[in-house]
Write a structure and sequence with these properties.
mainly alpha, 262 residues
Length: 262
């Protein structure tokens, strides 16, 4: 474990050095996600001017939910963005084969090969939204609530990573897994809002099958003292189970990988 931590630090250092060679590109990449998120938040604000509450949730409470899932997503964006391009960039070109002849875990190498600066923008937006919402809602922060926030964000990040890993493994057979990944990933858009506004089937889907709700709605419910808040404590368990399943599926795909012939 110590070896891989040291290796990751070296990979990250070299990546940041490369990014700093083109500082304007780094800033633009981070800023672009901020503007993209701002447009989505503006759309929510416009809707909430006409509809002050959504099934009992006001604008600032929805911002809290939105901020939490944005923080979780930013972890995936910064540290596991290569899972999106695994098929297109590594499998199709044959570049993944070089990972297989090096004395480190190929999945670790794939993840460490790129730090995505765009995720920094998402992280900053998430922090700003949580801070703004907590002040507006007068949340009384306690050590336990701070723990729920930290656990929810980190576990949520790993839920995103695990689900993206599960779907990107399809690249071993179909080369380009982006459509499969997007089919699952885009469900997180539902979790930017209170799950109670959706039909029961979507509630079940986003809680027990594709549990993005554990990264947003349930931690927010706990922080606000709502009835379903206790489910926030399930997020570490869900993340652990999904990571285990995703890694085993990765090993299965890797075992059957035969290259692209390039």
């Amino acid at each position: 474990m110590t070896r891989y931590i040291s290796l990751y630090r070296l990979f990250l250092t070299q990546r940041i050095k490369a990014l700093m060679e083109y500082r304007a590109n780094f800033i633009i990449g981070a800023a672009s996600t901020i503007f993209l998120q701002a447009s989505s938040i503006l759309a929510i604000w416009v809707v909430m001017q006409k509809v002050p509450t959504l099934n009992g949730w006001n604008y600032d409470e929805i911002l809290l939910i939105y901020g939490l899932i944005t923080l979780a997503k930013s972890i995936n964006h910064m540290f596991a963005d290569n899972l999106w391009t695994f098929g297109r960039v590594y499998i199709r070109s044959g570049g993944f084969d070089r990972f297989l002849v090096r004395p480190i875990n190929p999945l670790f190498h794939l993840l460490a090969d790129r730090f995505c600066q765009d995720g920094v923008g998402n992280f900053l937006v998430g922090v700003a939204l949580v801070v703004k919402a907590s002040f507006a809602l007068h949340i009384a922060w306690t050590p336990l609530k701070a723990l729920v926030l930290a656990v929810g964000v980190v576990s949520g990040g790993f839920i995103f990573i695990a689900l993206n890993l599960l779907t990107c493994v399809a690249s071993f057979w179909i080369v380009d897994s982006v459509p499969v990944t997007r089919l699952v990933f885009d469900n997180h858009l539902f979790a930017q809002y209170p799950l109670t506004i959706y039909p029961k089937a979507i509630n079940i889907l986003l809680t027990w099958v594709i549990p993005y709700g554990l990264a947003s709605f349930y931690p927010a419910s706990y922080l606000l003292g709502r009835d379903l808040g206790w489910l926030a404590w399930l997020s570490p368990l869900a993340a652990a189970i999904l990571l285990f399943l995703a890694y085993r599926f990765w090993e299965f795909g890797l075992k059957h990988y035969s290259g692209t012939g390039t």
